[in-house]
Amino acid sequence: MIKRNLSLSTLIFILSLLLISIGLLFSFIWFPKKEIYLSLTSLGGSIAGGWITLIGVKLTIQKSDEEKFIQTFMDKIIAINNSIDILQEFRDEDCFEFEGEDLWSIVLMKSEKFELVYKNINTTIEGEIAYRLLKHTLHLEHSSTNDFEKYLNTHPRVQIFGRETILNSKILSLIQSIDIIIDELQAEEERLVKEYSRIKKKRIIV
After folding, report:
1. CA 10-15-17 angle, 5° bins
2. Is the pTM of this model over 0.90?
């Protein structure tokens, strides 16, 4: 997309220079039609002026976006690392040592920590990654955990299929979501670091 925009901008700039050149050249060579070619010169000048204005606006917006990125970079990196630590501790330690009711008790105990991860992704890290992970982060929401606990204690379906079966299905779904979230957060951290380095390098060169 950037290359396409650049090519279009270059084409507009060349076209405007061409119109200006033709207008100036033929206004001197073919005097009877001087007004026509001077009009071409004016048109080319207008196009060139508009092009310069658009480039200026684009650069201003780009600089503003870069400033915002720099200002929020550390907050996002901290939020990502804290979130990964919470999720990895649960996945690599709790899930390794416990299962079933015991593991679900840990989920209930750590529901506030999971809620922090949910908030980090949706309010601090945000952006496209928050949208992509929406259905997975819903498992981490505090209210989701509480609602499922009530479901286990009251819903007839639990009596039909058995509490253990329903509970294990929920835990498996939670673990699968956590695996996806961790992978996505690690990839996002790598992307943010690369973008930060690119902006810093660009500013040093300029």
Report:
1. 95
2. no
